[in-house]
Amino acid sequence: MRYKVFVVATFLSIVVFAGAASARHADRARADRQTDSSENCFDSSDATEIRLWPGIAPGARGDDPCRDIPYLKMYAPVGVRNKNSPAIVIIPGGGYDRLSDAKEQAPVAEYFASHLHVVAFVLYYRLVQPDGLYRYPVPMWDGRRALNLIRHDSRALGIDGSRIGVFGFSAGGHLASTLVLHPDSDFDLPVHDAVDGARATLAFLGLGYPVISMLPSEYASPSSLKHLLYGYNGPNLEQLEDDLSGQHHVTRGAPPVFLFESEDDQRISAENSVAFAAALRANQVPADVHLFKHGVHGSGLSDGIPDEDQWPTMFQAWLGRIGFIGR
User: Fold this and answer.
1) Tell me, what DSSP letter sits at residue 168?
2) Domains of the chain (ranges, CATH numbers)
3) Is the peptide bond before 188 cis (omega within 30 degrees of 0)?
4) SS3 content of the chain, % helix, strand, coil (to 5)
5) In this predicted model, what pLDDT tens digit does every residue of 80-129 receive, in sequence order?
6) Which pTM was predicted?
7) Nearest to 189 by CA among 242, 136, 132
8) Cα–Cα distances in Å, from 185 out to 196, 214, 236, 239, 249?
9) What does the alpha-carbon distance between residue 71 and residue 48 come to, in Å, rounded to a whole number?
10) CA distance 142 to 236
């Protein structure tokens, strides 16, 4: 059974799907979670992996390919493709200290490339270390640089520079939404070059079970908050908690948003998505928001999870409606 609740028909529809919760789906998802970061190391011999900076990245302690080098991995449609393809940057989650959900990486990128016929990129941003290295704003530097790099090199990559979107999951959704909601900020990046001047303008924001809030009083994820803002305290911490809470920084200039979440999310409070949807509605930002009765956090494409497994086809249809694909 399914039903729709239209909050503001012109700008925002929230779609709630009822489905039977299944413990075996949650158990299987937990078993599939990967916490080994060895697969996320930069490989200079792989032509599909694009280093964000030609030398040592700003703020990097060294040049360790598994810790210090942020990069993009590209997935292009198989066969002949348009030399002006749209591009989607995928930002996986993991609480800012790891990229723990492999299902949000290659499977999503391969699906986007094969079914949506876009060039997909997975962003491997620097992760907060136990001593606080790579805390805020370093992940934001990496995210901004990735988007600008794709825009700057769009011709060489065969990409339409006016059709670049971003899709973030969990903590990656927080990073994606922060980049979108602060489009003119470089987060005090200490060095700049021609790439940083490209200033990518995003065509849409996609979110899967996202972290939105950094305010403890407004459903912040304790893990993401602890890692991203490691070592900040007092007024500085309070200011950052507010600055990095997306529900308070939506403006009418934001691009269209697609969002899915489950009401029974066991890791991130679904109130993050509810609050963000309300802010989008209040600012008349076009959005397609799907709240499923049951889902599994970190499931990526949500294979085998009724009804959440419908989100990829819903997303594809939405991209067609906003004119991002299908030209």
Assistant:
1) E
2) 2-321 (3.40.50.1820)
3) no
4) 35, 20, 45
5) 567 899 999 999 999 999 997 789 999 999 999 999 999 999 999 999 99
6) 0.90
7) 136
8) 11, 18, 18, 16, 13
9) 10
10) 22
